[in-house]
Amino acid sequence: MSDLLHITLPIITLLAGGLIILMLGLSRSSEIHQYLPGLTLLTILYALAISFHYQGNISFLCADDSSLRINGLSLFAGYLTLALGGILVLATWGHAGWHVGDPSGRDDCPPTGEFYAMMLFSLGGLLLVFVTNNLIILFLALELVSIPTYILVALSRSHPHAAEAGLKYFFLGALSAALIAFGLSYLYGLAGSANFAEIRNILTTSTVDNIYLIPLVLVIVGLCFKIGAVPMHFYIADVYQGAAAPVSAFLAFVPKFAGFYALVLILSCFESLTWFATGRITELTVWILWIIAAATITVGNVLALRQRNVKRILAYSAVAHTGYIMLAVLAFLDSQLPCGSALGSLFFYICAYALATIGAFSALSLIQSNHEEAQELSDLSGLARRHPVLAAALAVCIFSLVGMPLTAGFSGKLIILANLVKSSTVPYNITLVVIAVLNIPVAAAYYLRIIAAAYIDPGAFTSQLCPRRGPLLAIAVAALLTILLGLAPKLLLSPLYIAAQN
Question: How far apart (Å, rounded) are the C-alpha atoms in residues 298 and 1?
């Protein structure tokens, strides 16, 4: 029980904090609602302090039934989640408000209690994904991540587009959950166990039949929805456009991180299978991921190139970035490469992408046009002349998404592509590298349209700036960390490599 409590205490902290905030949100006192964002941030910081306390006391813990376990990698993933979760809370500060009888008349703001409670529930689900060692708990954790995000999308704006986006997101999420549940149950039926370690042992010591490919493909396709990869990417632009900008930033990080971590967990069960093993499962799986990665990078960039709406541009760019992260997953399957190198590059890229996306969407949330947050490129016209510091921070985040040197995005792309070049088992690895590199100037074409709108467009800045301190601080932190990790990527990569080896 002691080990189980140690493993789950940060998760319990987030879920309990979410329940308290949900109850406090029922109050009709505006003073209580003003403190809820701060209470949310304190809850995350307390959970982070608990996680840091573990580092000096444990290197590995496992529950009595082995359904949960914590190691160096899951601990570090928790640190990243809670740190970026705190920045996300800053990005939403002032967005949610008490609108029942609110004297300020902000009827377009979502209710504070429900909004921040859903954020904590989803972050708690993400931490549960990191510590799970069981198929059933993995599915429950993924749903705990996803279901609050459906509510967040619908709550985030009073515009009908938000309700439409939430409904679409929910139904497609249900399809994804069905595919994952069927795949995991199929895998359990074949292996006779729900424990990852036991499944891995069974696959190592017994003859593996082709039928194992069926649950693997079902789970991969289901997780493609969570991470926004082809062929389950078609919802992403409508959902990002319909949701409020801070919620879009949340969607770009939390479900994506959960999906990729779950994918690594499932693939690690098959890591003992060599290339051209009995049933050729590993070979076929790599080819499936190869096609998904190449298609996701290309489709995301081509669709983004056709957009004029900034949020739709960032949505389709999220698809393209998913493809780049998939390259790190392919490197993870190469037994010749160090596991720490592949997983370190995956985590680093997710962190770099999350920082840049939080900064970009936070900037959009501060710019108001026609009483709505910035949507079109024309809403950014003249931003640099009127608000040069905000425009500079936005430019840093956009340049990181492009992959410009001296930014975290450049370091992340370089590390992933370097691992792929070194790979000896990924088929046509150089071809995949060429596809990834050729897509970079395509991405630059639409990203630079955002920079041009802010810096070069001769039009006057007709939008309004809402200088909320929380989002401004989130933008500043995101931009500074983006530059810092671009100049010194080892600050994050070194502890990531060490954590991945434990």
Answer: 49
